Amino acid sequence: MDSIQQVELQIPVAGKESSRIQMLEDDTNNQQQQLSRFSKDYSWWFRICVYIIFLLVGQSAATLLGRFYYDKGGNSKWMATFVQSAGFPILIPLLFLFKSSKIASSSSSEKPSKCHLYLLYVFFGLLLAGNNLMYSYGLLYLPVSTYSLICASQLAFNVLFSFLLNAQKFTALILNSVVIVTISASLLAVHSESDTTSTKSSVGKYVIGFVCTVSASATYALYLSLLELTFKKVIKSESFDTILKMIIYTSFVATCACVVGLYASGEWKILTAEMNGFQKGEVSYLMTLIWTAVIWQIGSVGLLGLIFEVSSLFSNVISTLGSPVVPVLAVIFFHDKMDGEKVIALLLALWGFLSYIYQNYLDESKAKSSNSDVDNSSQNGIIKDLDRKQ
């Protein structure tokens, strides 16, 4: 009887020991998951920072080079449009380099066919070519500071398209950002007299430049939202070469469309005279066009990378961040006037940007808090189950 009672008393002890071992294993697994999550977050933030730098540097430098092209004797709108997409061959080596890192996130039956992909590339390429042409008109007839600040209105358009196409949710801070940035761009519309004088353009050309830039901003916002929708709903891939393919094939189609426009408009006949009459010389003319094409592609990598990793709206907000940078550089290099209206517009654009960034911070904090609550509840559930079994 004593031996039987001793065995019966040892059973609960063994059960407690096994439960403790199970809890230790669960804690170890949770720590490993947290370390893995931290490592993943670290690499993700590193990619985001690289894409942000690419976008800001590419956008600012390419805009200034475009203004330099026009100021020093360039006058071909189709050539200015051509260089915005013609630099895609520099990305082809990267396509082969990152091809091995491809990770399929969907089964082959869910992936789009090559025919559908080619149709998407043609559609986005033609849309990009038309959008770049409108931007070229705006950059020709407007000073850099005015052009860049009007481009900030694309954020308002992007919020609208993101809500309709990408299920973007409105919050008070996002709405505040949209309104403030829209007001910032609208301030420049009533300031045409001084800008017209500074650019030596007629009022009619100023209006054309303003309308083309606003229309290009709306088209660009639609382009970004459609790209995000395509990445998430059609392509469904998680590899960097997906971004490169979208840039390369789309830019190829846009470049072909620009070549057709260049010959159809007859502007190809004046290119030789334009190069010979360039104020800084023929070499400077060629280098301006080549570096503009290269830098636009760097900006495109950053742009599509942010769309792929986060959203089109976030990518557009980062583009808006470049709005206060470009006018300051334009004042330094091109002696644009920075009067009271533009200073107010700069501050409003920066305010709108910070409002959206703060909303992102709140969303991320809320997501981390909910994830931690889920982890804690799951651990408590495991402990309760073990207690019941004991």
TrEMBL record:
The gene is PUP10_2. One of its GO terms (molecular function) is purine nucleobase transmembrane transporter activity. It is a multi-pass membrane protein. It is found in: Membrane. Residues 367-390 are annotated as: Disordered. The chain crosses the membrane at residues 44-66, 78-98, 118-138, 144-165, 172-191, 203-226, 246-265, 285-306, 313-334, 340-358. Belongs to the purine permeases (TC 2.A.7.14) family. It holds the Pfam family PUNUT. Its main location: membrane. One of its GO terms (cellular component) is membrane. It comes from Nicotiana attenuata. This is Probable purine permease. Keywords: Membrane, Transmembrane, Transmembrane helix, Transport. SUPFAM superfamilies: Multidrug resistance efflux transporter EmrE (SSF103481). Residues 368-378 have a biased composition (Low complexity).
